Amino acid sequence: MNTLSPAGQAGTARLYRIEPEAPSAAPGVEAYIATTPGTRAICNDPAVAGVRYTRLLREACTEILRALAPDVPESDAVVVNILRGGLNFGLRDALADAFGWNAHTTCFMSAQRARDAPDSEAWHITENSYRKVYFPKAASFFVGDVVATGTSLRYGLQELLNSAAEQHVAVRNLVFFTYGGPKAHEILREIDADCRARFPGYGRTILVYLEGRFVVPAPDTPLHVRLTGTDLIRLGALMAPEFVESQYESPSYPIERCTIYDAGSRAFWLYEYVADVIGYWRQNLQFANHGMTFSELLAERFPELDAARFGDVDLRALARDRIAAMERVLRPE
What we know:
This protein is α/β, with parallel strands linked by helices. It is about 40% helix and about 25% strand.
């Protein structure tokens, strides 16, 4: 089991280093879990959506960047937006707010994943024709994306490195922010090794998980409701202690289907996003109508928590409350 050790703080942001099971003296990926009030709110409350969501995420990344304090000159900094999820993180503005920068570079590339078939666990890349990439002579990349299967991330970073090599760029560092699962670490290990082989003088690969290294459910994951290859769930995850404690603030938090739902629609197409979240809570309402209790659902989705701390929770009433809350996202009072 990986363990967490405190690794820094700035403002309300706290950093924890993910300590590997077998420490190595060789350079590799530095993996962290970062926690802030804003990133906890995003994970816990799906009603945090639209502009409110992206502003909170940008502000959180600003504080986390200050805590990380990467040794990168402004002239080398390149924000990479893998469309459309990368736009959510607001890293261009976060770097400006964190360090007072104005002249750092931003580039864009599209990479949309799709299932090979509706019931398939295999994915492929589509909508990858748009690219606007340019680099200084030495480049340190700052990237943000949500990672479940990692299909888009692997494709996007490989294409990025190929473009850098073609332009004879000296790649120095990679800093990656994610709401994501273990695939992010697996892919960044591959990218780190590639960078060290292709770019002499390569420095650091930094991976920052927001609130936790969550789990992507498989077809056999014991959950009544799961979206394989898409959801990021709390069950079996490695999480910041502040995030775990925050689950007790509301009984709805630990039983949400996903810690982020669909990040793109959550920011840019709220009608689709709200329908997705409401659909989940309607399923919970049906479960309650057939006798499922809150304690039973909690034991399924986050068994480490103490159900007694929530008191007597009526799952039926909770589901109706969450449906109403999500409806208000589109029709605020």
